[in-house]
Amino acid sequence: MNIDNTASQMRKGVLEFCILSVIQQGEAYPSDIIDKMKAANFNLLEGTLYPLLTRLKNAEFLTYRWVESNSGPPRKYFSLTEKGAAFYKELEATWNELANAVKAVTEENTNHFNNNFNNP
Fold first, then answer.
1. What is the three-class DSSP state of 40?
2. Does residue 17 contact residue 91 with C-beta atoms inside 8 Å?
3. Ordered alpha helix ranges (H), the chain
4. What are the residues whose beta carbons fall under 8 Å from the beta carbon of 35, sequence distance 6 or more?
5. Nearest Cα to 46, choosing from 30, 62, 60?
């Protein structure tokens, strides 16, 4: 097995939740989303982000507005709809449940290993 492939699949699994998390903090421009994700060591490419934003918009989870720019074309700023906010809350609950389950399992394995290692 390849750890890079496994890590990539894990990131893809939480990508939608992370993007919605950034947007639920306030209206967001795509490059701002990318910057926040990179700052969190979660590399995200425009080629991945834009189709996902379109899919979320088509699912009526996001809306956008155009804002004129002094330095180029108008910018599209995304925000959550009511439906998107509700979906985000469901994802957040699911993530917390999953993260707690993984933590419980991995801590149990660590504790079991440490107990066996320290008490032969």
1. coil
2. yes
3. 3-24, 30-39, 46-58, 82-118
4. none
5. 30
pLDDT (tens place) for every residue of the chain, 120 residues total: 789 888 888 888 899 999 999 999 999 999 999 999 999 999 899 999 999 999 999 999 999 999 998 888 999 999 999 999 999 999 999 999 999 999 999 987 666 555 555 555
Structure-block tokens of residue 86: 């509700």
Q: Which residues contact 66 (CB under 8 A, 6 or more apart)?
A: 74, 75, 76, 77
Task: Name the amino acid, one letter, at 21.
Answer: S
Residue 1 burial (CB < 10 Å; 0-12/13-18/19+)?
exposed
